[in-house]
Specification:
The structure is a homodimer. Chain A is built from 21 helices and 10 strands. By secondary structure, chain A is of the alpha+beta class. In chain A, the strands form 4 sheets. Chain A has a 4-stranded antiparallel β-sheet. A two-stranded antiparallel ribbon of chain A has the order 4-5. In chain A, a hairpin with a 2-residue loop joins strand 6 and strand 7 (about 140-145). In chain A, helix 13 (about 395-420) packs parallel to helix 16 (about 490-505). The interface between A and B is large, with 41 and 41 residues.
Chain lengths: ~650, ~650
């Protein structure tokens, strides 16, 4: 039945709306372009993507940029293919199918806003990526670019350098509205998450949702932390109280986030969307096989070979990096000692300022090392591949990178706390590291690229204005601007920043209660600078449906468990607590161990008791599952009778 | 369509096979019997159960026992109602529906063994329990037994004492075969789990599967433990090794059990069976409401009221029991002291034997207290209700009972270990408690009831033999025998026994490595005595589909975490380890704490890394989910076009 619809579908439509830009290398052979565009336009039955393509004629008459769009009907059929979940008229969320389109809220045959632009672009990306070689042995015109049945054409074009990039187009009108409601005016209130989701997709909206939630969640810690600084409280019982509150609070906020996440992604439909049934990303190598779940023919990936390669290549590299990072740490301690000696010899304002210099230098070096490690890891993974529209860090390397960052940032603090036992240095070092890294990050991630981007735009505009004759020029101008913008490589780095910040706040919270205050201040500006980055600095990223923050939930929870241990040890080491047990160090340690075990037990019980999904979402999910199974029964019945 | 089938279904069938026995109180009014049997026989459309009923005519002409059966077609339709999952011809597991019956393996219209007898009885139980009042205000003939729309009739009959019991009938032939292959011959090998499942249902088969698995899993511990006893090893490093092995091993076995459980229950179909979509058990009170998941009208239960009642009634009771149990423990320590004094004063063989007497007495008292607590808790829950065919301990009370048992059994051991620091007494007390409780349990659970049952049977047989004239006599005889047999109240007590045994083995494993040996020996006889109990002592229980061992998985895992802590402390306290740190107790404690944290971390990582379900089961489950969602799409499409 769907088959009939596909053949009805015409590739011509009068009101062509460009959605995605395909940039080919300059001087790409004619036959290649013809073959590629034909495959994009070709009917599904012939193995094409059945999309619309239009060349962008620039002032120089060059034809290396193509605009891809699709008819409304094509997009609706694509929405069914990717399994979008939409709200029905009866308020339930259901997987969209073309034939049941009338049951969906806000659906009308002439309502072109039923699918958001981000969704349309996601569909087109999915279709382009799934354009697979049939019996071609190579890309026409490029005998060295081999193809085999089932190989993603776009992927091969990218790796052989013929295709420079694919990116979705900004919608100037929408973007202006979004910018205004997001950060355009000074206001107290939440971010427009639903609008962000419509424009940038669920992954990015969820990141901003988490950033906002996390900032609010830190406020109580910050409020409780301020008097410790103002009144210079040093009583042990107050520190114990603060640490205990922090530890239990962090458990609560992480559990509550799961619930909020479920509510939000249920509304967005991604909670019900099944990722595992999707066809593998075109990045996968391998020959065609049968997917055991869906029964569809698709490329199968051998994961053992990949695992071995990762361990053989990555492990020695990681060890090397770790060694280097520890070496740098030792240099930092030497510097610190030198600064201290200097301060003792010639005590002055300058020398006491100098005390902070080693920490600041170390913080800068850490940031630089993190970035170098990142690029090196990416180079190792991609190794001869050309990657353009998504970060090449795969999951395993992300774990390595995460651990490396963790050690890089916290090794010195652990060393100071548990080897040197120097609480004053720990506090000073913690503060300097936290503040320096925050300033550096905000500068390197948003402000610097923004400034570069602005300068570039000005130059472009100057060049363009003299040629404003073609009616299409604004589009050409826009595309020329956007294609030079940087690429946003996903939310990994942004989450990592939050993760490290959470470490600074919670691992040593009883030593430096003010950390939460700095974290809150940073995050408020972070929301704005990240928003600026998304709207102004980078190319528009493709939307990526997601139902949760993935591995980060586990990472934050692990950090929260580790911080129970560190805080208990720190409190046990504090002189105030030691003074309570003048006779026996043993009693002290036993008490600390007992308290730690109690706290851990409470944490686990709390995590167990608080349900991950609110009751009404649980019921809705169970209802859908029940209906699915009933439908399966009915279907078997119908086919059999 | 199903509706049409229901009306075709005739309630008369020539070859009536009795499946379930309904015993009414003697002297039940005629009109009540007529009404009840009519409701059982009545068509589904009239609110009946559409089953077959036949009175059992005994020698005295009394008519208080009824046999319930069902036609083959009725059972198949019932299998669809309860959602049985069966294997298809293509080896996949699917929810059975009558219309798709031909696609299922071994299905034939004349094959009456497609459903096992246990499944048939489960279906009949389900149908009887779901026989609900329509507009009756009371049970006819008993104005005090009130009814309201939706109230389970069987439940009201039970609580008002009109219905004495409902139980499934044994199948002598099958039982004989099962007994033979289960414990009838001496053999080395596994239990016939699939046959047990066919006869007794999944819950009981899974218990025996777990018992067997657990016994095998204990063998390595036992093997490693024996030389400690034989060579009287007291080196600390050997104990550390043994404890470390134990702790990691217990994590592995619990994780592997989940995988085995998934494999087994997938084959049985219960892994796919959805319990949460079932209608609530007739035990629930309350008025009719709409189930938010299935959209069906069914009794809704207010859980807040129940919670409050539980806490108001149960908590003080539990506290009282705990106080009493601690009081008994103190008396035990006095006795122990007295025995020790006696032994020191007059040293002889008799006095050294006397040393064990307090522990043995205490073990007996613990068992008695556990049972008293159990009956008291059941009395508190049921309070004026008459419960016959299932244990009345609800989930919350089960938790209380579990905790009470745990404290009752282990409080004295914890006290000896961590307050008295007396390792010798701990070992002696542990050994006595473990062995005494095992002997007592085997005796009280299986052998004593078996002996009583045998005596009763002999007496019955003697009485019967003189009257052997009626052709139906063997059935009458069988029913008269079975209705007097004890009722098996579910696997809770059996699992509890294993759980406490696991505690004895793992909590103090480094003190008494021989515990695992006793556990293995006990479990081997336990399998036989439990099998005897199921086949010979108790009434046949109704089958209960289940996909896992439920809360016991969590209970065993928690025990395994607690034992990491206890073992680390015990090792830290041993004189051998103390001798390694002659200068500083602090270093000792810190080392112990470090090792403990490492072990806990390894445990959690292992539990995280080992997948709960084998990959092929995961794929099969994902495939079913995928097909369900596809079917839902198709269905919406079909209804809409």
């Amino acid at each position: 039945m769907i088959g009939v619809l596909w053949s009805f579908l015409d590739t011509f439509e009068s009101n062509f709306r460009p959605l995605v830009v395909v940039e080919l290398a300059k001087g790409t052979k004619k036959e290649t372009i013809e073959w590629f565009t034909k495959r994009i336009v070709d009917k599904k039955a012939n193995g094409g993507a059945q999309l619309l393509v239009k060349p962008l004629v620039t002032e120089k008459g060059e034809e290396n940029i193509y605009l891809v769009g699709a008819s409304h009907l094509r997009l609706l059929l694509g929405a069914e293919t990717v399994g979008l979940v939409k709200e029905c008229n009866d308020n339930s969320m259901r997987t969209f199918t073309y034939s049941s389109r009338k049951t969906f809220r806000d659906f009308a045959d002439d309502n072109h806003n039923f699918l958001t632009m981000a969704e349309c672009q996601y569909i087109i990306k999915h279709e382009l990526e799934n354009l697979r070689a049939k019996d071609e042995k190579m890309i026409p015109g490029y005998p060295q670019a081999k193809l085999y049945p089932g190989k993603s054409i776009v992927r091969r074009l990218l790796t052989s350098g013929i295709l420079v990039q694919i990116f979705p187009l900004h919608d100037r009108e929408e973007l202006k509205k979004l910018r205004h409601s997001w950060y355009g005016r000074v206001k107290v209130g939440y971010q427009p998450l639903d609008e962000i989701r419509c424009y940038f997709g669920e992954t990015i909206a969820l990141y901003f949702g988490f950033l906002e939630y996390f900032t609010f969640a830190l406020v109580p810690m910050a409020v409780i932390g301020i008097p410790y600084y103002v009144f210079a409280w040093e009583d042990y019982d107050k520190y114990v109280m603060f640490a205990t509150f922090n530890l239990l609070w962090s458990t609560v906020i992480l559990e509550v986030w799961k619930r909020i996440c479920a509510i939000v992604t249920y509304r967005w439909g991604t909670l019900l969307m099944k990722r595992q049934f999707e066809e593998p990303r075109p990045g996968f190598h391998g020959v065609l096989g049968i997917n055991p779940v869906t029964g569809r023919e698709e490329p199968v990936y051998s994961s053992i070979k990949r695992q071995i390669r990762i361990y053989l290549v990555s492990l020695p590299f990681v060890c090397l990096c770790l060694y280097f990072s520890l070496y740098v740490m030792m240099i930092y301690f030497d510097l610190e000692q030198w600064a201290l000696d200097y301060h003792e010899e010639n005590e002055s304002n300058f020398s006491s300022l100098m005390l902070f210099v080693p920490s600041i230098i170390y913080a800068v070096v850490i940031e630089i090392m993190n970035r170098i490690y990142r690029y090196a890891a990416e180079f190792l993974t991609s190794w001869g591949k050309k990657v353009v529209y998504s970060s090449s860090l795969n999951t395993n390397n992300k774990y390595f990178y995460l651990q490396f960052n963790f050690l890089n940032c916290f090794a010195s603090l652990f060393y100071i706390a548990f080897v040197l036992f120097d609480m004053k240095l720990l506090r000073q070092s913690l503060a300097t590291l936290l503040i320096t890294s925050q300033i550096l990050n905000q500068f390197a991630e948003s402000l610097l690229p923004y400034w570069l981007q602005k300068r570039h735009k000005k130059r472009m505009k100057k060049r363009m204005s003299s040629l404003k004759t073609d009616t299409d020029l604004t589009l050409v101008e826009q595309i020329n601007l956007e294609k030079e913008m940087g690429t946003y490589f996903g939310t990994f780095d942004d989450y990592l920043e939050l993760f490290l910040q959470f470490g600074y706040v919670s691992l040593f919270s009883c030593v430096y209660p003010l950390a939460a205050v700095f974290a809150v201040l940073n995050n408020i500006t972070e929301i704005y600078s990240d928003a600026l980055k998304m709207c102004r600095v980078y190319k528009r990223p493709f939307a990526e449906p997601t139902a949760n923050i993935g591995v980060w939930q586990l990472a934050f929870e692990t950090m929260s468990v580790i911080s129970v241990v560190t805080n208990c040890i720190l409190i046990g080491m504090s002189p105030q607590v030691n003074a309570l047990f003048p006779d026996s160090k043993m009693d002290l340690i036993l008490t600390v161990a007992l308290v730690e075990h109690l706290l851990l037990a409470i944490k686990f019980i709390m995590a167990f008791v608080i349900p991950d999904k609110p009751r009404d979402i649980q019921i809705k999910l169970a209802k859908l599952e029940f209906e699915s199974l009933e439908a399966l029964k009915q279907q078997v019945r119908a086919t059999d009778m």
